[in-house]
Amino acid sequence: xxxxxxxxxxxxxxxxxLRLSCATSGTIFDFNNMGWYRQAxxxxxxxxxTITSGGIRNYADSVKGRFTISRDNAKNTxxxxxxxxxxxxxxxxxxxxxxxxxxxxxxxxxxxxxxTVSS
Length: 119
Fold this sequence. Notes:
The chain is an all-beta fold. The chain has strands at residues 4-7, 10-12, 18-24, 31-39, 46-51, 57-59, 67-72, 79-84, 93-101, 107-109, 113-117. The strands form two sheets. Strands 2, 4, 5, 6, 9, 10 and 11 form a seven-stranded mixed beta sheet that branches. Strands 1-3-8-7 form a four-stranded antiparallel beta sheet, with no helix packed on it. The protein is globular and about 45 Å long. 28% of the residues are buried.
């Protein structure tokens, strides 16, 4: 059973930083593309950043230069991270971790973590 569990959300002032993490139940070899998406109230879920199995990163224009996606494979399980700097109120949303499982080609989602940027 593939599990994704996000952490690291919270309330931050404009200009501040947060680091999101997504713990998975698999190794780096179990997943193809992995990524972060977000959904603001009243809006559709949108792509924030993705990373391929080969390490190629892709970012939404709205976060380029401010957000950095990364992953690590500590203790033989892969974790996905999103370092968010220079946060703005428009970054307020629920952030979701997503991963494509190599062995059944299914896409899995975490439960989401709330990020609120407000003074």
